Amino acid sequence: MSVKPIVELESGWQNVLKTKAIARLHRFLDDESTRESGPLFAHDEYVKYYSMCYDMCTQRTPFNWSDPLYQRHESTCSEYLRETVLPAVQGKGDDGTIFLLKELDHRWDNHLLMSKWMGKFFMYLDRYHVKHHTLDSLGEVGLKLFKTIVFEEIKVTVTNTIIDMINKERKGEVINRDIIKKMIVIYETMGLGELDIYTNDFEQKFLIKSREEFSERSNSWLESDTTPEYMIKAEKALLAESECVKAYLNNSTEPKLLKVVEDELLLKVQNDLLTAPTGCTALLANDKHEDLNRMFNLFNRLENGLQPMADIFKTFVETLGMDLITKRETKFEESDEKQKGEDPEFIRAVLAIHDKNRALVADHFSDHGVFLKALTEAFKVFMNRNVGDHSNAELMVSFCDRLLKPGEKMSDEDISADLQKMVVLLSYLEDKDRFKEIYKNMLSKRLLGQSSASDDLEREMISNMKLDNGATFTSNFEGMMSDMMTCKDKDGEFSKRKYEAHLKKSMKEGEEMPTMELNCQVLTGGNWPSEGKQLETLNIPDEMQQAVESFKQFYFGCQESRKLAFNFYQGNATVKGTFGEGKKKKTYDMSVSTLQASALALFGDGAALDYGEVKSKLGINDDVARPLLHSLSCGKYKVLMKTPMSKKIKETDNFRANHKFSSPQHKFKIKMASFQKSHDAGAVDDSRKHHIEAAIVRIMKSRKTLGHAELVAEVMQQCGNLFKPMPRQIKTSIGDLIGREYLERDEELANTYNYLA
To answer: Considering the entire predicted model, what is its pTM?
Structure first.
């Protein structure tokens, strides 16, 4: 059996590995002219050198040369880097030009090639010796040597050169991006799997220099450019820096670099940009939507960066609204005209402001919450600023009333859209309960007077209010609509058909049907307004009274346990009137209210009555009598003659039928000015008191014990969706509840209340 000869260390190293394999590798790296196509080492050559290393590492001790070869591999790489590579790159780095980067790139490629072949020659060391002794791999050794010997010596110059090139590109020059990308790879590789080297030796200095660069740019742009021009440049700069990172820097740099650019171009000069003459207010005033969208996108990059812009937007919208209020105040001051409870031009102007700015928030501010809040707060300021004798709640309800009555030259779709907008405006009102009370009155007049253009639109409006304000807010409205549906049911319990059947059944033999036709609408009292109660005792004509009594008998025959009250204020009638003498006699069908019909009945036989007699016979007061007699004697259709003639009703006036009255119309309606207020302020105040007390009891029942300040705050929060209670009102309600023994004052803790179960 043949024994394999022992390979001595110096023999194997000097005669084979160093002089043949490594020397040839160095010559190949140093002289590019000697390079030929094809592999550097043929397969047989590579196997010979690998086998030599294998044999030297597998011999028995003391002839196992693994550790010496590992050391000589390291010293060989170190020597080559120190004597060949370092002088080469240092010679290119004196002026800090791109030649240094190109030389470093060339030497780095050579180093990777050398490490590759050295790793192949000494592969056995990596497989066994390195693992067994927990040493650095041959590749790691090569990288650490390159870092220590070469990279550490030139990194400052390389970093400065890269930064200079990037700054040149920022100024519009064309640079070699590929070489920068290769340099960044070297920084990343030097970290051996970590980015510490890249971060500490390049990125930190790069960010500092970038901050200086963009600080200078910001100052220059502020001096020379308008806000829109500045923002365009800032937008381009941010985009360019993002592309720069993607092109040749590590991705982890992007958020840090953009933060630097944002700080210098946006954050530090935000107030200057927003408040400049060409800033946010000017852009809003001139409808510069593209610039506003750019401003939004830029400041949205900053933490809380949109709030200053939203504050300006709020002030702008608030100013628009207050200008409308001021304009309205001026109109009243300069005019002696009596103020009306409607102002559609004002409401239209408010809607126009809202539509425009709501669309701006949606289309160009991405419906961002901070701008929605700003819009809401701005509208709350001027929507709760009342002008003149009528509140904005009254004006809004009157506007809705116009939309829901016939005569508006608008499609149902347009009316529906406007009603939806009115619900949005309602959300800005603090006194929603006042709007509710007024709307209930107007709705009752439309329903009972059959002056609503569309039941579908009425229900849609109620549904929208319910969606925004809750079921409690619209419960009365829904009840009123339900009552009207019941009244329209021909087979309903109190329908006209059943009433007429009752009359026929109750008539004695030979009796004729009453000449007066009565049509009653039976409504649920709790759903409808309580105004007009002073007319429940109106002295109506005997014919009317007989019809009323007949209906009462019919009603109580069906429902004995219920209460029935007639509201003559809401009633209407068709009265036939004959005027003129002889051939000039003409008969007219006059559509009038029940009150007007009762008054006309007093003058049926040519009677002449003075003001006091009319008031006495009807059983009404001055507040009712004056508008009543004015409508019949001073309006468009003067069916009564007043003496002396004037446009005002006085207590000394006398009245009689106007036999000279004539009209080209056979049928007409005599309108009468309403003597009812739009709502009962006392009822609203009472309702608020109940809401406050209910809120206090709910809170105290849950909390048992609570301080005064905390209780007031919670009550204001709970009631805020319907109205804004005053602290004084809450304090009064607390006192009332203490008196009624719902609460008690704590004996030990001042300003603290206890709930009494």
So the answer is: 0.80
